Structure formats: C-alpha cells, structure tokens
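ARCHIVE CARD
CATEGORY: sequence design from structure
SOURCE FIELD: tokenized fold
FIELD CONTENT:
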C-alpha cells in the first residue's frame, strides 16, 4: 500500500492512476516526502515543475526542504525528488536548456544552467536522486520508484 501525504495538492492524476491500476493507497501525514510505501525506506517528493524545484533550492521553501532532507536522512529514508516538468526535460543535464519564464520580468531569476548546477550539487551533497517525468507518467513513476507498490 502506498501512503499519500495529506498535504499533497493537485495530485488527482496520481490517485486516478493508482485507482485504475488497483494500487492500494491511503492518505495520512507523512514524516517526509509525498508518497511512501508502507514499511518502505524510500519517499518520493513530487514537484509540479522546475519553478517549484527552484523555490526548494533557492527560494522561500529552501529551509523547509533542507530540514526535510535532514529528517529523511536521520530516519533512514531515501528521499527521491520527482519533477513533473515535461517539455523534453528527462535528465539533470536537460535542465540547462530550461528557459525560466520568470526571467522575463525578473532577469536575476535562476537560469536553466544555474538550476542544473545546483541540482547536481544537491544530488552530490545530500545524496538525493532527482528524476523527471511528464505529468501523465507520474503515477507509474511513483510506483516504480517505491518498488512496485506491492508491499503492505
């Protein structure tokens, strides 16, 4: 069974995938991340796009995200970030090609290249794996990352 954090928003597409594929899930407050298999040691933290990811690394969500990373490590949980960006972003290297729409009004906003470099730094420093998918693949990718959703 997969546990879904009660604070997870805008995830109807994920829960519809679970239901359509007969994957049991329940909503509860998770210690870290947004999705975790009962009894598992991996938690998936879903990000809606690269803008949300940039806020976790550079913006107002940075402290909360780093605290979550440390909580996961202390609890023996591998935190995995899954970013639903699409638009050809499949790897960390692809992030360099991202054109941040915020830069039109705020030229000081992060570039794709800078976000790619920062993502690599977080991956290395905090041992966080970062994956990408199109929104239509999110449910399947979460199940894969959690080991198939078969325990519990």
């Amino acid at each position: 069974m997969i546990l879904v954090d009660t604070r997870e928003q805008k995830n109807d597409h994920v829960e519809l995938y679970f239901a359509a594929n007969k994957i049991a899930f329940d909503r509860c407050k998770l210690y870290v991340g947004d999705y975790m298999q009962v009894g598992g040691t991996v938690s998936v933290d879903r990000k809606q796009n690269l803008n949300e990811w940039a806020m976790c690394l550079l913006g107002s969500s940075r402290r909360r995200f780093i605290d979550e990373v440390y909580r996961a490590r202390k609890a023996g949980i591998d935190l995995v970030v899954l970013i639903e960006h699409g638009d050809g972003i499949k790897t960390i290297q692809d992030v360099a090609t991202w054109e941040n729409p915020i830069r039109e009004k705020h030229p000081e906003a992060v570039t794709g290249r800078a976000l790619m470099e920062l993502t690599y730094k977080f991956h290395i420093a905090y041992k966080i794996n970062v994956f990408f998918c199109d929104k239509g693949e999110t449910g399947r990718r979460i199940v894969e990352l959690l080991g198939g959703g078969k325990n519990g």
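CARD ANNOTATION: The CA atoms of residues 17 and 143 lie 10 Å apart. The radius of gyration is 15 Å.
SHELF: design records, drawer C
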